[in-house]
Write a structure and sequence with these properties.
Layout (H helix, E strand, L loop, with lengths): L1 H18 L2 E8 L6 E8 L2 E9 L5 E6 L6 E6 L5 E6 L4 E7 L3 H4 L1 E3 L2 H26 L4 H25 L4 H9 L12 H11 L15 H14 L4 H15 L3
Parallel strand pairs: 1-7
Antiparallel strand pairs: 1-4, 2-3, 2-5, 5-6, 7-8
Helix pairs in contact: 3-4
Length: 254
């Protein structure tokens, strides 16, 4: 009899574990019971709603499912139509807290090192960009010195980005940041504008990992390709086909 109950318990736990392949708990202060929270994800240039839940009396919602979520950038849309993003990768059971206002400042994560990094990085970059915007307003009065200060702040943004890339190279956050890094053109070896253009076009996708399927569930992959064909590529139909074939070959990595 004892073995029978132990066996039943094991079966139950296995079923429960299988049925909870993702579980994202969220608490957002400032909303009422029965207010609706929407859960969605990016795919290309689209934002798709996956699920919705009502807040309970304590301001909690729980989203769960029987199958693992695709890795990528996800978001919650709140009753006031504001939204904030978070990341989903291998670890898919975690807890996110936030408040109705100042979403980047107040976003926190438990049991998710990835989202702790993501939220902290967002806060740092937002503060640096705020400082840059203030300096740009003052630029007319003391252009030379203020431009130096702005460059220092941009260097800090680059430093914060590189720190993530070096410390956490395999994370989804690193792949996202890497794909957003602007290509640096070696001015010393490329003197003519045409040479710079050719170099830029040839190496534009160097930082985009076509083998990483996680980037499909972000707006970055789509936006990068669209920007290339709308702003960089100015050739005829024949060479356009070559470029498309080139991208298709790269995408075969995944």
């Amino acid at each position: 009899m004892k073995k029978f109950f132990i066996l039943k318990l094991i079966i139950f736990l296995n079923i429960f574990a299988f049925s909870q392949n993702y579980k994202i708990s969220v608490k957002i202060d400032g909303f009422n019971e029965k207010d609706t929270l929407y859960f969605g994800h990016h795919y290309g240039n689209q934002k798709n709603i996956i699920d919705l839940r009502e807040f309970d009396e304590n301001g909690y919602c729980i989203f769960s499912g029987e199958e693992k979520l695709e890795s990528g950038i996800y978001f919650f849309v709140m009753p006031n139509k504001k939204f904030f993003e978070f990341l989903v990768d291998k670890d898919q059971e975690f807890f996110i807290t936030n408040k109705k206002e100042n979403l980047i400042e107040n976003a926190k994560a438990e049991n998710s090192k990835l989202n702790k990094l993501f939220f902290e990085f967002q806060r740092k970059i937002k503060n640096l960009k705020k400082e840059i915007a203030i300096l740009q307003e003052k630029e007319k009065n003391d252009k030379i010195n203020i431009e130096k200060e702005i460059l220092i702040l941009f260097d800090k943004i680059e430093k914060n980005t590189n720190e993530i890339l070096e410390k956490y190279p395999e994370t989804l956050l690193s792949q996202i940041l890497k794909s957003m890094v602007e290509l640096k053109i070696p001015n010393s070896s490329l003197e003519k504008e045409n040479e710079k253009y050719i170099y830029f076009k040839k190496h534009y996708f160097d930082n985009l990992d076509f083998s990483d399927h996680r980037l499909l569930q972000t707006p970055i992959f789509f936006n990068k390709i669209i920007y290339f064909f709308e702003n960089i590529y100015y050739e005829n139909a024949d060479t356009l086909i070559k470029e498309v074939n080139f991208l298709m070959e790269k995408s075969k990595a995944n």
